[in-house]
Amino acid sequence: MGSKKGQKYNIEPKARIKKAFTNIVENRRTEKQALLDAGYTMSTAIKPTQVKKTKSWQILMDRYMPDDKLAKVHNEGLEATIKRYKNNVTTGKVECVGEEPDHAIRHKYLDTAYKIKGRYADNPQGITFNTINITQINNVVDDYL
């Protein structure tokens, strides 16, 4: 019996990849050290994307960092604020004078969420950078005129 397009299989990740994942997520080791501790070779540890692109890794990511949970925290982070305080010289107390968006924290939440989910493109589509040499443009204009 053939498989259907888009069908998901109940694959249980192997112990070695689980150990690497745990070393990164819970034990806060670097990817390289986590992979080495889990029994991967140095060449794999140097290029962790080989492991992170596997179905097993994605299963672990979906299991322990589901999109709905990330979205909730992400939304909370995007709404991060910072309170501003000042010393009241009359009373001698520190008082809250307001609250404003904490853009640095908001950016960190956004950046981290995209990195975790692998959503950064190596070469973003639709964005191109062109370098223009003004001397060449002037020469073309001079030749035209």
Give me the secondary-structure topology.
Elements: H1 15-25, H2 31-37, H3 42-46, H4 49-52, H5 55-64, H6 67-78, E1 81-87, E2 94-101, H7 103-116, H8 134-144
Antiparallel strand pairs: 1-2
Helix pairs in contact: 1-2, 6-7
In total, the number of strands is: 2
Mean pLDDT: 81
N- to C-terminal distance? 72 Å
* Radius of gyration, whole Å: 25 Å
Can you tell me the number of structural domains? 2
Order of strands across the biggest sheet?
1-2
Q: Estimate percent helicity.
A: 40-55%
Structural class of the helix and strand makeup?
mainly alpha
Strand content: 5-15%
Sheet having the most strands:
2 strands, antiparallel
Low-confidence stretches: none
Order of helices and strands: HHHHHHEEHH
Shape: flat
Mind explaining what this structure looks like?
A hairpin with a 6-residue loop joins strand 1 (81-87) and strand 2. This protein is mostly helical. It contains 8 helices and 2 strands, in the order ααααααββαα. It has 2 domains: 11-64; 66-120, no CATH class. It has a two-stranded antiparallel ribbon with strand order 1-2.
